[in-house]
What does this fold into?
Amino acid sequence: MVTRQEYPIDPVAQIQFDHTTKNMQSFKHSIILAWFILSTSSAIICSAWLAPHTSPNLHQRRQQQQQRGGGSNDNIRHTLSSKTIERIAIRRRAWSNSPLFDGDSVSMEDDTAASVITPPIPYRDETSFLLAGEVPSDDDGTKSAPIRQSASSPHPLLSPPRSIPNPYGWMRDESRTNTTVLNHLHAENEYGKRVTHHLEDLRGELYQEFLAGIQETDYTTPALKRVPEDQGHSYWYYARFEEGESYPRYCRAKSSSSLSSTNTKQDALYPPSINLKWDQKQVTNNDNDDEESSSLYPPLLPNEEVYLDVPSMAKHKTYLAVGAIAISPNSKYLAYSTDEKGGETCQIYVKDIESGKEWVLHDYDTKNVPHDDDSIDTITDDDDDNGDTNNNVLECDGSIVWNDESDALYYVTMDDTHRPYRLYRRQIFDSEGHWIDDVENRKKKEEELLMEENDELFNLRISKSFDGKYLLMRCSSKESSEVHYVDLRPGDNEEYENDNDDTVASGIKGKPDGKNKELVCIAKRQPKVLYRVTHCRGYWLVQTNIGNLPNLSLKSCR
It folds into this structure.
């Protein structure tokens, strides 16, 4: 085994070695310091010797600057070449046109800095907060509503609750009347215009480029809606788009089978011949802007009629969005919803297509209108004429479905958080076809609450099945859904009795009578399971992701 041998170190030699190392480091530092002093002195001497030999004008201007305490940029400009001055001016103009500055350009003659555009800064209310968790009871024993949480959540509320800062909660104003909020929004809009004013020409070019790729004058494919001969006429329905208009016109034309006594298979499947000059604008001498706007193009199909002229409706409005458009099964009435504020809250109108008379649905719920006898006279018949939108107008999510007898509507209302959650059925026409006004409706209690979704994570939506036989109600969240249905056909319909054994509609108790029908659930909601259904020719068509599928699969049942 080899061992390491240690040699002793002489203490005197170690002391001499350390002393020599320190002397060498001191000598190195002295050389560096001497070189720095020598180079600095040489530079000063050269500058003093060269100064009198430089341009006399430049030397004099620099001396004047030093006497005045530094001078300004105007004195230095004379020392720059014309190309350099031009390059600086170009850069300053580009910088001044940026969104951070207010001004078109900065010239070399005016060296004042461009004013900086600052965005409006909203007020922060540091005392405002929200409670998350189990809210303590108030003095009267009631509890304040906590932050949204699903009623079916297995997780308990936080106890004690935690406060969440809400410094900008004051900006929430559903009434759109708070002057502080409105002034801030106006300031935001003005700021947006100022920081993007240099892009105005580009916006115009892009808009024209987009329009060049769109056929503005166009129409949708006509679709036939058949109606039994004893109930009315069958029509072809379509929409027309015209150049320069932001909204379509909804039109219809009578089917040839309704115009003639001989019904052929071709008349039932294909629309009449289309006018070949449908896209050629007609020249008119009407320059009166006060008159109601009308189409300047010839009709697309024979016997065309416009049942909803949206451009005329939007002519004197700052905002208009059409929600749902529903034709009654007898083709006599039109029900449509509009949003005139931009808050995604719609109003429902009913129109007699032949006469043009319109009514608006009012809200007489307990939370909006008292139900005592003295308050019934506050809603008059004048409020219903011509679609007048006075107080207590019904607000809904915009979806509309007719019943099979064309005398009642189904619609959905929203809660305080703008969530669709209640399904109503309202009788609007009596047995003789007369409009039932709101006062009479209040007395007879013709409005019926069919369904209410209390889980705040679920929204309630309604639609018709593909064959129009059933009203579908879909309660859905991001990860779960549940569908109910109710039969829309009258109780004495023989077709219903024949089809009852072939569909899951056998779950309805008793014979349907077109009113007060019992809702039937397709399948109860389950976690992570989504599905939607429709009905066609005796089959239920179901799309679902049951089984942890990444996409929806199609299934059918009878």
Notes: The first helix runs from residue 11 to 50. The chain is about 25% helix and 20% strand.
